Every structure is written in structure tokens, then in C-alpha cells.
Amino acid sequence: MAENSNSPHVSVFASPGRYVQGRGALGRLGPLVVGFGSKPLVLADGVVRDLTEPVLSGSFEEAAVPLVFERFGGVPTRAEADRVSSVIDEGGHDVIIGLGGGAAIDTAKAAGDNAGVPWVSAATVASTDAPTSALSVVYTESGAFESYRFYDRNPALVVVDTQYVAEAPARFLSGGVGDALATWIEARAVRRAHSHNMVGGFPTHAGTALAELSWDLLWSSSLPALEAVRSDLVTPDVEAIVEATTLLSGLGFESGGLAAAHAVHDGLTAVDRTHHLTHGEKVNIGSLTQMLLEGEEASDIDEFAEFTARVGLPTTLTEAGLGEADEAVLEEVVRAAMDPSETIHNLAFEPTHQDVRDALRAVEGVGRRARSRAGLGEPTPEDYT
User: Locate the Alcohol dehydrogenase iron-type/glycerol dehydrogenase GldA domain: which residues (predicted)?
Assistant: First the structure.
């Protein structure tokens, strides 16, 4: 459930201080970050550092601030956040920049909060809506969901360079679409149920409307945007999808609220056989599960499944590695998804464990029919390895 679920009956909207998106945006990072500190620390893995260091060197030199990298360990665990916050303290850094994807960015938020310094999100992929939010998803060392960690402020600055997004593997953007499509599915459920959002209040009209706007852009621009990034191109459709998956979905999920789709994602992380899927790919299984749980029109569910299959997202348990899973494995997924702290309890009704398990099982048939209509053939887990 969202933080402060016993908060007064107020509506709350949260957002980052500034959002900058476009081709070449990383080249502006140095001048932009000096408003928040004079000794930044950049958290990134080795691949992202190699890709971005030439651009950042010039940008930070222009701003007359030192460029200091710290290598990200790869998994956003509590221990990794503690390690990085120690680096901040020991180096006297006054701002931290999470550079790359959602895992590095979420870790930078946690480390910045530990150390008491502002944090900046600099995204080179559009695979999740993590960059804008005032929370981190914390995982165990093995990659299972552990908890949400909430902060009293959002990133001071978010920078997204769409040229890097276009040059990244298309699977990253596809995953971002899966994550963002869930935003409206969940936000509308939260509003119907009069539940709390992720910042401890009721959703504002703005938060819910931004979730719906993200949905509309995703349906109109996802397929041409994915076609463009397969050729490393930045087009208006790519810019629209990056905004939808990063800014609009980020504001929409945080201020609109989460429900069953992300809870099912969290449940899927509890079993090793799903770890080949990205965050957004698991979320798509969760979106289908929520739609089935809520009794959405069959035609709407079929349309959604076919569209997301064309986007390149998994729509079956088989693709998730659960096609032959026995009841014990599925029960582990359901148990984690139904944890008392989970956002599935934001629905307008309280599903039983059997309700969730049956909806999860029903995803297989829906997804197979969708793949057949899309001409994609039989699903296999190897599609996502």
C-alpha cells in the first residue's frame, strides 16, 4: 500500500523540480546540476560510463565542476545504497546523479537520502518510470522485490537524452511501454476505489489525467517509435513515447496510485524462473492479471493483449517461465502479490488468493490467442533471454 495510508483526507500531487528531455540533453547536465551542488557524484555501471563519459566530460568542464564516477553494483539493494552513501560522505559530495536505468537511479535516490544530499536522475534508457518519483524499489541480492522506500522529496532534476534511448536495445523501450501502460490501468482502479496514491493522499484529477494521457500516447506512438529505435532514430513518436514512459507515467503512477498490476510484478520477482524478464515485461503480465481480476470486457482484454504482444511484451505465463509451473510455484507468486503491504489492496474489492491465482492462470489463454492473431507463433521463455 502507499505510504501514510492513515493520512488525512487530502489529495496529494508530487513531481520532480525540473524535467529536461531531448536529443543531446546529457550535454547540458553539467550546467544544470550546478544549481544543486558543486561536487557531484555520478553513479553508473561500466557500460553506461563508457557510453556517456565523453559527453559528460565536456559538459562538466563547461560548468567548472569535477566529474567523479562511482561504479554501480547492479542491484538496488539496501546494502548498495548504504555503500554509495558512504562514498558520498567520504568524498564530500553535495549532490548525487543516478545515470543509466531505473536500478542505478533508484539506488542514487536511496544513497542521497541516506547522506542528506539532493539527487538527480539522468536516464539513458526509457525502460521504467523510476526517474521522476520520490520512491525507490528495493530488491534482495537475488533480484526479488523487497519493499518500496519512500522519500519526502522527488529528484531535484530529471534529464533524459533521447539519442541514447534510441541507440539502446529496443527491448528497453518496449519494457518501458509495458510499465507505463499499467499506469492508467492502475490509476483508474485507485480512483474508482477512493484509495490512496503513492505519496500518502488521494489522487488529484491532474495525477489521474496524466496517467490517461500516457496511455493515449502509448497506443498512438509505441509501434512507430519502436520501429524508429531499431534504426537508432529519434523521431516525434520516439520523443512522445519517452515522455509517456518517463514523465507522464512517473507522475501518473506516483500521484495516481498503483493497484494489482505492480503487485503481481512483485509476486513474479519472488520466483527465480521469472528473472529473465525485465521490470516492464513482468508488469505486463500483471496488467493482464488485473484486467481479468476486475472483469474487464473480454474484447478490451483481447485488444490489450494483442497490442502488447505486437509491442514485444510477454502475454503468457509460458514466456514468463511459468508455463509448466505447479501450484506451489504459483502460490508463491500469489502469496507475495497479496502481502498486506502490497498495492493490490488498493482495488475496489478484496480479491482472494484463489481469485488472483485463477486470473494469473487465465493469462495464458488470453495471451496465446493474442499472439495467434498477431501472427507471432507459439510462445517460449527463450523469446526473452
Answer: 16-162
User: Are 216 and 132 in the same domain?
Assistant: no
Domain check: are 115 and 218 in the same one? no
What per-residue string of b and e applies to 33-68 under the rule 16 or more CB within 10 Å gives b? bbebbeebbbbbbeebbebbeebbeebbeebebebe
Nearest one of 189, 195, 336 to 264, comparing CA atoms: 336
pLDDT tens for residues 306-321? 999 999 999 999 999 9
Domain count, the chain: 2
Q: Is residue 205 in a domain? A: yes
Tens digits of residue pLDDT in 87-105? 999 999 999 999 999 999 9
* The last residue of a domain, from among 148, 166, 184: 166
Range of the domain at 258: 169-384
106, 246: one domain: no
Cβ atoms within 10 Å of 141's Cβ, excluding its own: 13
Whether residue 16 has pLDDT greater than 90: yes
- Which CATH number characterizes residue 206's domain? 1.20.1090.10
8 band by pLDDT with thresholds 50, 70 and 90: low
Query: DSSP character for 210?
Result: H
Whether residues 158 and 175 share a domain: the answer is no
d(CA 142, CA 284): 22
Q: Which three cell numbers stand for residue 328?
A: 506451489
Active site residues: 179, 262, 265, 279
Q: What is the pLDDT of residues 158-179, one digit of tens each?
A: 999 999 999 999 999 999 999 9
